[in-house]
Amino acid sequence: MTNVTADMSNPPPTSALPAIASRGHGGPSTLQRLAQQPRVVIGGGIVLAILLVAIFAPWLAPHDPLGQDLLHMLAPPMWMEGGSADFPLGTDSLGRCVLSRVLFGARVALLVALCSALGAMIVGSTLAIVAGYFGGKIDRLICYIVDLWMSFPPVVLSLILLVGLGTGVDKVILAVVLVDWTRFCRVVRADVLVTRQRDYVNAARLMGFSHLRTMLREVLPAVLPLMITLFSIEMGVATIVEATLSFIGLSVPPEMTTWGQMLADGRGDIRTALWCMLVPVFAIILTVLGCNLLGDGLRVALDPRLRSRGE
Amino acid sequence: MLSLINITLSTKAHGKPVELLRNVSFTLQRGQVLGLVGESGAGKSMIGKLISGIPPEGFEVSRGRILFDDLDLMALNREQWRSLLGRRIAYIPQEPLTALNPVMTIGQTFDEHLMLLGIPGQERAAMILKQLESVHLPNVKDMVQRYPHQLSGGQCQRVLIAMAYAANPSLIIADEPTTALDVVSQARVLSLLREQQRIHETAVILITHDLRLAAHVCDHIAVLYAGEQIEYGPAREVLRAPRHPYTKALHEATPDVQGPQRVLAQLKGQMPGVSLLASMTGCRFAPRCPGRNDACEHGQSELRETAAGHWVRCASACEIRPMPALQATAGESTALPWSAPGGQPEAAPIVELKNVMLRYTAKRGWFGRNKVENRAVDDFSLQIQPGEFVGIVGESGSGKSSVARLIVGTEQPSSGEVIINGIDRRQAGRDVMHLVREQVQMIFQDPHSALNPRRSVMQLLTQAYEIDHHGAGATLRPRQEQARLLLQDVGLPPDCLERFPTQLSGGQKQRVNIGRALCMMPRLLVADEIVSGLDVSVQAQILNLLLELNREHGIGLLLISHDLSVVRYLCSRVLVMQAGKVVEQGRTEDVFANPQHAYTRLLLEAVPPADASVQWPPVAAAA
User: Fold this and answer.
1) Angle A277-A292-A235 (CA atoms, 0-180°, nearest 5)?
2) Residue A18's pLDDT is what?
3) Cβ contact B276–A15 (<8 Å)
4) Concatenated DSSP letters for B222-261?
5) Domains in chain B, please, with CATH?
């Protein structure tokens, strides 16, 4: 019944305007809609908090993350028997403060998450838009490459890459981008294919828009919400990949603190000092959860189809 | 057998209760066909859904009763009501292709349906064949093996009709069963439906937007407007002498395919939406009614019987008095104030197609060894003069849309020449390409899909300013000026400029669509089925707009349509296409008055005539 039919040769009576407005214009703006999604608020809050922690780690951390205090090896967290307020979350086998290490670990984790998600998004989406827009042979070629790429086990692929490239944060980012761009490419291409069929893309071409302009002005805005959603999920994935790689010692030089390294270091004392592993595990879980919640919320808030059902 | 007594369906919009359907009452006898007629938003599908026991969520029946045989449907619980569906009440949906499961063969779908009806397994196979034969499907043994996408729309609809009749129901609800089909299939499906209905003595509720079609197929008609039943009477009587001003307007907004040409009367405004209904006190049609008086604004009117069995809901007596506004246009109706635009015959043609062929080769088998050639357009020649309105008609798959794509350049001819403004499209270099492009613009069929939802109306109308060679010219000021002019041209209010497509109605979107094509002042518009998705009264407005644009700017039009009456109203010349070939062409009046080719006659016969006394659908179409 909302299917308002006729319009007409005269301006619609003024009384008809509120009816129309209430359907479209008066609706909440994108920002308001985002704020109404609890998942966006919680997920975004978590990600933002971790971001702040990463930035202000030098001021927040009570100790140098690499500073060894051999007198306090494997000290338990402060609420456990034998713990002290000096080391709120205890120390590891070399007497380094676990809290300081986990705070500093957020820096590498977030840097890798943001940069590699951005890189994967740019590479994957560009190829996806080109493939979906032009179709035909170009599309087939790009799809073959994606298929071939995805047939490598991701962990093995990144291991090979890192062994070849050496260690360092930039290498880790490059490895994640090279492994994960295919995810963007697959999903975004499907959306581009749908958009490509819309008459407005055709209309732009007939009007004389160049291919590049059509892609940027007509196709890209339509798939942007999907890209943003994938971006935030990819951040979570990149966090796990980075932790995995540093766990096996292939990620960054030992003088940089990462959550994966903390896991690797704590593994030997798992029976005596469980906190050495639990703290970084909890940090990873929280980060990934935040990213996934944010991504899921964005998907609902930015997808017009899900939105209309909700309202 | 079925009676609705004062059915009122309510919902809440913005906290206020709204009566979406108000006091709808009718009775339907065994073996009779009732037509529910109205434009989109009138609530006609809502009634169909309500009777089949699937009222949309958030709505409740606040008053009234539905009696079916001796059952009070409102007293039944949902389970009992649903159990009637398929057995005693059958439903024929609008989109035959989407209604059939694409991964099941026709036989499997049918078998499942029969299983649900409780028919034992060993009898089913024979029954399927018998049912499919009864709806005149060819090669039924082969048909049960096929998948829905391998059938035409008309064939799918036949399968659905066969399934509906399998349980021998006493009531069938057909919701726009032919809207998705072209004219010829429409006539065939309707005559089949009518034939089955007579054999089984079923009662049928036919929901449609086409008053003429309903008048010819149904026994009685109920006309709906904004949830109110405004007229009810014997079908032919309603078409011959409509009483309610809205029914009259619907009738006069439909162009004729035969008889004298007349100006299409257009209604102002639009049907009120849900949120507006709550604040309306009087007759819901009053704001648009040409014969309204003060009484109409207040108080609801009751259905009154004006002639034997002919009921009308209109407070003032305007159904008896001659109506001022509509009567005036009826007076002019003997002659058009213009003739269909013929253009300038001596000028150089704006578009010229010479012996154009468009072939598709489908490759089958390993490495495409078996090549199947398909000629979408076969030896096609056409010249369009500046300012001329030319129509191409034909059923779906006749190649008429391919011609449009060839002219605008989204498709290249396999052989032959496409010459636009004296330049061969294929030889045009980059430097002159924009001269070719700007001469010919396309108006798309689906205004919803043709407008980028992320652009405002202003940006849409003047999108052409963003083309590369305009470069620096794309500053804001001249763009806004141009957008305002275009807005006037297409008859939209100035406050539309900042709106987005989702905030416009279907007719308004189509106007923006036309305005965008006009931006660079092309000399020819190519319009592919631009009014087929619109309601009758909106269609009339768009058609008149196109004629006006021709008078003001001398724009030519290539209209591609399956609707012959629309082509006759606009075009001075017409081409009839069948299977990629032109089978007949000439002046529209000559071709329609005296069709030479059998196919042209078939198309013309398939259009429901305006004259109530003519027998339609033609018996021959059933074969």
Assistant:
1) 75
2) 35
3) yes
4) EEEETTEEEEEEEHHHHHHS--SHHHHHHHHHSPPSSS--
5) 2-88+167-332 (3.40.50.300), 98-166 (no CATH), 351-454+521-608 (3.40.50.300)
User: Is residue B435 over pLDDT 80?
Assistant: no
Q: Are B151 and B132 in contact (CB under 8 A)?
A: no
Q: Where are the beta strands (DSSP E) in B56-179?
A: 60-68, 71-72, 89-92, 171-175
pLDDT tens per residue, range B375-422: 888 888 888 988 899 999 987 778 888 898 888 888 888 888 888 888
- Residue A4 pLDDT > 50, yes or no? no
pLDDT digits (tens, 9 = 90+) for A153-204: 887 888 888 888 888 888 889 988 988 899 899 999 999 999 998 889 988 8
- pLDDT of A244 over the 60 cut: yes
Minimal CA separation from B254 to chain A, in Å: 15
Query: Which has the closest alpha carbon to B178: B203, B138, B207?
Result: B207
Query: Is the N-terminal amide bond of A153 cis, ω within 30° of 0?
Result: no
Q: Is the pLDDT reported for residue B315 higher than 80?
A: no
Query: With contacts defined as CB-CB under 8 Å, which chain A residues touch B533?
Result: none
Nearest chain B residue (CA) to A205: B410
Amino acid at B417: E
CB contact under 8 A, A20 and B503: yes
d(Cα B278, Cα B17) in Å, to the nearest integer? 7
Single-letter code of the amino acid located at B282: G
Which residues of A lie closer than 8 Å to B, measured between beta carbons? 1-13, 15-25, 198-200, 202-210, 213, 217-218, 221-222, 304
Chain A residues with CB-CB distance to B493 below 8 A:
10-12
Residues facing B370 on adjacent strands:
B364
Following DSSP, what letter does each residue of A169-227 receive, concatenated?
HHHHHHHHHHHHHHHHHHHHHHHHHHHHTSHHHHHHHHTT--HHHHIIIIIHHHHHHHH
Strand partners, B206: B35, B174
Check A218 against B537: CB less than 8 A apart. no
- Count interface pairs A-B at CB distance under 8 A: 161
- Residue in B520, B467, B463 with CA at minimum distance from that of residue A212: B467
Q: Identify the structural domains of chain A with CATH numbers, from first to last.
A: 38-52+89-310 (1.10.3720.10)
Average of per-residue pLDDT values in chain B = 82
Q: Which candidate from A4, A9, A22 shows the least CB-CB separation from B41?
A: A4
Which chain B residues touch A204 with a CB distance below 8 Å?
452, 463
Q: Which two tokens stand for residue A67?
A: 């500073």
Q: Does B585 contact chain A (CB < 8 Å)?
A: no
pLDDT tens sequence across A66-94: 888 777 777 888 787 777 777 888 888 88
CA distances to B28, B61, B90, B91 from B69, rounded to whole Å, are: 10, 20, 15, 17
The gap between the terminal CA atoms of chain A, to the nearest Å, is 16
Which of B250, B452, B460, B546 has the highest number of chain A CBs within 10 A, making it the mutation to test binding with A?
Answer: B452
Tell me which chain A residues have a C-beta less than 8 angstroms from the C-beta of B444: 199, 202-203
pTM: 0.79
pLDDT at residue number B316: 61
Distance CA B356, CA A242 (A): 61
